[in-house]
Amino acid sequence: MRHGLAFLGWAGRYVWSGWAGAAGLFCIAAAWQAGHEAYGSFILPSPLETVREMGKLAGDAGFRRAALETAERAAAGFALSVLIGTSAGIAAGYSFAAMRLMRPIVTVILGVPPIAWIVLALIWFGASGGTAIMTVVVASLPISFAGGLEGVATRDRSLDAMARSFGAGSWMRLRTVTAPHLVSYLFPAWITTAGSAWKVTVMAELLSNAGGLGGDLASARALFDIPRVTAIVLVVVAFALITEYVLIQPLRDRLEQWRQAGLPWGVKR
Amino acid sequence: MRLELDRIGHAFLGRAVFENLSLSLGQSEVVALVGPSGCGKTTVLQIAAGLVDPLRGRVRRGYRCHAVVFQEPRLLPWMTARDNIAYGLAAGGTSRAVRHAIAERRAAEVGLHARDLDKYPAELSGGMRQRAAVARALAVDPEIVFFDEPFTAVDVGLRRVLQDLVIEASGRDGFSALFVTHDLSEAVRLAHRVIVLSGRQEGILAERRLDGPPGSRDDRAVFELVQDWTRDPAFADLFDGSRDAA
Question: What are A's interface residues with B at a Cβ cutoff of 8 A?
Answer without folding.
Answer: 158-159, 161-169, 172, 176-177, 180, 258, 261-262
